[in-house]
Amino acid sequence: xxARFESKVVLITGATSGIGEAxxxxxxxxxxxxxxxxxxxxxxxxxxxxIRATGGRALFIPTDVTVEADVARLTEAAVGEFGRLDGAxxxxxxxxxxxxxxxxxxxxxxxxxxxxxxxxxxxxxxxVPAIAASGGGAILNNASNLGKVGMAQVAPYVVAKHGVVGLxxxxxxxxxxxxxRVNALASGAVDTPAFxxxxxxxxxxxxxxxxxxxxxxxxxxxxxxxxxxxxxxxETTFITGAVLSxxxxxxxx
Length: 253
Fold this sequence. Notes:
CATH class: Alpha Beta
Number of domains: 1
Structural class: alpha/beta
Strand order of the largest sheet: 3-2-1-4-5-6-7
CATH superfamily: NAD(P)-binding Rossmann-like Domain
Radius of gyration: 17 Å
Shape: globular
CATH topology: Rossmann fold
Number of helices: 8
Number of strands: 7
Strand content: 15-25%
CATH architecture: 3-Layer(aba) Sandwich
């Protein structure tokens, strides 16, 4: 696949399944060192070992992205192990609260905001200075297609992902003088364990979600990973503050 990431170090949260894992494997296959952050230690260690077994460079750090000390430690580990940080993919997230707004309690509201928005704030807070110290680079935040449009019965998630879009744009302006580019990914439905455990838990559910996309299917993680790798590479050095859709036409209607 080439060596677009040779000598680069990229940090990835939510890296033990789905999009995050696919991005980690893709960047490692192109010569990059990847630092994986997620809660699942057993799975994280296995993925890192598999990457190293094929000649790649990988480090897994158990991380709860809703805890700032964990996020700080993840960034510090990347710099400590590899001497620099060139990029980050803030990918961790999930829907915790389902239902009409009057049926969602405060705990569900806070859980979605903490996991999907506050975690990105924590990431940027530590990643921007680390990447600036390395001479610049790129950060990509996963804002989901629901960072651009609404959807009933998942209001806290929609609010959080819209917040990620605003946060991305604001920090892109702050990072520009430091040559730190910050963009947002607006992905559609992707065949991940999280999807399978929620909206795609049944063939009927998967078909209903697929039908919302004009391409009439959901994406494979590798399809999203190829675009993420492109945005994190030096091939996109004039893109910042953008919200880029990879959603099978979901937001084109």
